[in-house]
Amino acid sequence: QVQLVDSGGGLVKPGGSLRLSCAASGFTFSDYYMSWIRQAPGKGLEWVSYISSSGSTTYYADSVKGRFTISRDNAKNSLYLQMNSLRAEDTAVYYCARSGHTNVFDIWGQGTLVTVSS
Amino acid sequence: DIQMTQSPSSLSASVEDRVTITCRASQSIRNYLNWYQQKPGKAPKLLIYAASSLQSGVPSRFSGSGSGTDFTLTISSLQPEDFATYYCQQSYSSPLTFGGGTKVEIK
After folding, report:
1. What is the CA radius of gyration of chain B?
2. In angstroms, rounded to a whole number, what is the distance separating the alpha carbons of residues B95 and B2?
3. Which of A6, A48, A105, A107 should be substituted to probe chain B, the one whose Cβ sees the most B Cβ atoms within 10 Å?
4. Which of residues 35-64 of B touch A (CB under 8 A)?
5. Most buried by CB count within 10 Å: which residue of B21, B27, B31, B52?
6. Which positions ≥6 away from A49 have C-beta within 8 Å?
């Protein structure tokens, strides 16, 4: 079945780094744009970044620009988010999500929790 | 950036009630408006895309309308499994933005 599985979350100190992964199955991964979306505890949804199907185009929210890098490996059906210079306000559940070029998120991963704390 | 404003932020309703949630964009987004449902501890689920198109597998009691800046999500007869938080999202331009959410609670 169509599925996204998020992994890589954990506890990290402010200023530290973490790499999230999202494994896709059940569909042709290379046909779809992919995004990362996060949700701080008790808060709403915040889109973080997207990457085009080929990986040639990326876009970031201002809140993470210059610190986070989205990438993908279509041969491995995998999406990544490299997070550097982490701050307390980056604490959230991070979801990967599939979309077409219309940026409608039709399939979501289960989420992975990132906690930034000393 | 396009700001999305949902109202109300929460509401209490009974089973079989008709529920309406509104979403307003800070500028015209044509029909590039999507609705999601999220239950506690779970990922969001797509309900409506392009303002009024029902996602496959979503019950027909959910409907969406609107264009330009004003949009509505309607649940025609609220069911026990519909108690959740609902978010709108604009897909007109980047950065993509979500509304603040509407929590639907049991009266």
Report:
1. 13
2. 8
3. A105
4. 36, 38, 43-46, 49-50, 55
5. B21
6. A35, A36, A58, A59, A60, A61, A64, A68, A70, A81
Q: Chain B: residue nearest A96 by CA?
A: B43
Q: How far is A93 from chain B (nearest CA, A)?
A: 10
Cis preceding linkage at B95, omega within 30:
yes
Q: How far apart are CA B29 and CA B24, in angstroms?
A: 10
Say if CB B45 and CB B82 are below 8 A apart.
Answer: no
Q: Please give the pLDDT value at position B76.
A: 97
Confidence at B6, pLDDT banded by 50, 70, 90 = very high
